[in-house]
Amino acid sequence: MKVKRLMIPLVMALMAMFLLSSGASPALAASKAFNYRFAGKGADAGWYSCEGDVCTYTSVYVADTMYRYDGTKMNGRSLSYSTSTYDPVNFAFSYSYGFVENPTFSISKKLTAASVSASVPITTCSYNEMTGEETCIDGGIVQVNVTWTGIGDLIRGSSKGHYVSKNFTSNYSFKGTWREATAVGLINGNSPGEFGWGQIFDLKDSSMTSCHGSC
């Protein structure tokens, strides 16, 4: 599961390739070639809590990142927060999500520790499977504080790929270093529940795509 999470930036790159090949984006279709690069250090973690059959899952993702797309470079630090709760008795699903830039974030060079603190504006939604109705409201501000402690050895991984289709040719590469971690979280001063998973990572992802034909 952790390796799958670390591959998220790669999936984003492949999604961009899909948009190009499908012609879904005029901006991409107008270009015969594009380059994408991602580099970032960060951490993520998840927790869960259950009362009877009703369980809530909470996750936090934070990273210092650099994106480069067709010569345009973007740097940024951001935090994503989400929760989801499912009530199987009442067929009700609720979730909250939020995003904030420039959280207070620190990470050690050897990926042995990390911490983040931020006030995150959230949106809260509820969905009823019986009626098909979904309602979303302003959920206010939540204070998110997480401290990661690395455990075990550093794990290193890399992959490369070459794709050829009727409409495009693409090369991609992924290289990452990560360490499993425990994480203590506080959401508005309260624990989000039992610790589920955590990691501290440093990864790079890139792709180069050439369009030929009508893509």
Secondary-structure element order, as H and E? HHHEEEEEEEEEE
As a whole number of angstroms, the C-alpha radius of gyration is 20 Å
**Order of strands in the sheet with most strands:** 1-2-3-4-6-7-9-10
User: What is the overall shape?
Assistant: globular
| Overall domain count | 1
Percent of residues in helices comes to: 10-25%
**SS strand fraction:** over 45%
| Major sheet description | 8 strands, antiparallel, barrel
Q: What distance separates the N and C termini?
A: 34 Å
State mean pLDDT (0 to 100 scale): 85
Counting H and I runs of at least 4 residues, what is the number of helices? 3
How does this model look, in words?
This protein has one domain (2-31, 43-211). 11% of the residues lie in helices and 68% in strands. Strand 9 (168-187) and strand 10 (194-211) form a beta hairpin. Strands 1-2-3-4-6-7-9-10 form an 8-stranded antiparallel β-barrel. The longest helix is centred in the N-terminal third of the chain and has 15 residues, at 8-22. The chain has helices at 2-6, 8-22, 26-29, and strands spanning 33-51, 54-69, 72-87, 92-101, 104-107, 113-128, 134-150, 155-164, 168-187, 194-211. With 215 residues, the chain is mainly beta. Mean pLDDT is 85; it is low at 1-30.
Short description:
By secondary structure, this protein is mostly beta strands.
What would the keywords be for this entry?
215 residues, disordered N terminus, 8-stranded antiparallel β-barrel, 68% strand, mainly beta
Task: Record the SSE blueprint.
Elements: H1 2-6, H2 8-22, H3 26-29, E1 33-51, E2 54-69, E3 72-87, E4 92-101, E5 104-107, E6 113-128, E7 134-150, E8 155-164, E9 168-187, E10 194-211
Antiparallel strand pairs: 1-2, 1-10, 2-3, 3-4, 4-6, 5-6, 6-7, 7-9, 8-9, 9-10
